[in-house]
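Continuing the series of single-chain predictions for the mutant panel. This is the parent chain; the variants come on the following pages.
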Amino acid sequence: MSKVKPAPLSPETQIGGYRVVRKVAAGGFGVVYLAIDPEGQQVAIKEYLPASLVARGPGELLPQVTTEKLSLYRLGLKSFFEEGRSLAQISHPSVVSVLNFFRENETVYMVMNYLEGASLQDFIITARDQKQQKVFRESTIRSLFDEILRGLRIVHQHKMLHLDIKPANIFITDDNRSVLIDFGAAREVLSKEGNFIRPMYTPGFAAPEMYRRDAAMGPWTDIYAIGACIYACMQGYPPNEAPQRLEKDRLTTALARLRGVYSDNLIEVVEWTMALDPLSRPQSVFALQKELSREGERRYTKLSMAEKMRLQFDTMVADTKKSVKSVTGGVAVKPK
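Parent structure:
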C-alpha cells in the first residue's frame, strides 16, 4: 500500500504575511502555491515538503517527521534554505526570481515571481501531436536554448548547479521569455545521504554520473540535460535513459534519422552534449553557447539510400528483439 502524500496547505492559510490561494503544483520534494503578497500581488510560494519523509493531515500546518527521518529532513531543509539564499542573489530573466525565503511551521518557504504561460514539455506534446516532419523549427530551438544558456551560465558562475533540467522545468511565459524553474539542490543532497528510496533524477534527462553516488558532478551534468532537452525538441520524445545507453547506445542511430531535417551542426551539438563520458562533453556553458551560435555553418546532409535501408534494417532488428523479449517475459532466449 502506497504512503499517503502530505496534504497541501488549505486556501486562505496565512504564512509569512502571504495568503495562500490554491495549490498549483506538487512534486516529491515540495508543493507550489499561488499566493497573494501584502501589496495584493500574485506570487508563487514553494514549500519544502518531501513526500517520503513527512506526513501532514488536511488543515494542518506542521509537517510530522518521525525520529529516524528527522536528521535527513533537516539536511534537506538546510539545503533548500541555502538554495533560496543563492537564487535570491541571481537576477536574470531566464532564471526564476526568488523574492523572499523564510522559515515557518518547522519548514522553509521560497517566494518567487508567479509566471503565466506553459512549460516546454506542454509545447513539445502539442507540436508532436501535429505529426509534422519537424517538431520545432531549428531557429526556434537555437533561440530558445540560447536564452536558457544565458541564465544557466549565471547560475554556474554563482557556483550552483540546477541538476533537474528537463522540458517540464523550462517555462515559456506569455510574454515569450524562457525561464529555468525548480532547482534540485535539496534533491541532490538527500540523494547522497542514507537509504533514500525515491529516484533523484528524471530518466532520459539525467546524466550517467547522476546514477552513481561517488561520481563528480559539475556544469557538464547540466549540459547533458540541455542536450537531452534539445533532442526532445527535435524528436518529440525524451532520449533513452543513461543506463540503457551504457548498455546499448542508440543515440547516433536516432539522430541519423534527422539528417536533412535538422542541420549537421545541431545534430553534432546534441551528440557532443550527451556524450556518456563527462570529459567528452562541453565543460562550460560558454563553450556550448559558442557552438550553438554557429548558424552560418548549417549543412543539411541527407541520408543516402544505402544509409536509409541500413537504418530501416536496424529498426526492424530492434523491434523484433523487443517483441521476442516481451513474449518471453524479458528472459533472453538463446537461438539453437
